[in-house]
Amino acid sequence: GPDQVRPSSCRLPLVWRSALVHLVVVVVATVVVALCLEPDPFWSSIMAYALRIANRMAASTLLRPSAALPGTCLAPMSAATGGQAPASAEFFQKNKKLQRPLSPHLTIYEYQITTVMSITHRVTGCGLGLCVYGLGLAPFLTAHQFPYYVEAVKAMSISPVLLVPFKFALAWALCYHTLNGMRHLTWDLGIGFRLKELYASGYTVLAISLVLGAILAFK
Known about the structure:
68% helix; 219 residues
């Protein structure tokens, strides 16, 4: 029979997504500088240098050979024969009637330490990244420098019952993400892929991060 055409995956390559992130950072920084900064030669030169670096990073990303997008997002697919279509429909109807989840589906997998640590690594990374961006943009949006607000928080005499858990959460996230990132780097070297090694390194990272987080929280 004649070939049919169906859309294939049109997801942007990683390099294009990275370039878009750089572009967004440049636009946001430019708007913040334009709206919130008073004309100051020092800060103007610093921001100009930062924007220049971001522009170069975006340009170098886009100029890589692997950044080229495919010319089309259509892939040829042979037409199903008369017997294949009914068999496929019967298969899906049977699974639907038996309430079977289709793989891959997160609800059919049992969560293990490797799964939880992988998800937690990404969550802590996103949270720490937002904190870094927030602290970086805060001086442009506030009237005082960072030490002023630190002293203001200390003057509030917040109860340790509230302050210590907050400090522990921040400290543990930083320690966990750092240690687990080092664990990922060892995997890049081809080390620690056996199941026992995965579990041993995972429990080690959890234990050390909890201890370091507790120490930093009570400082």
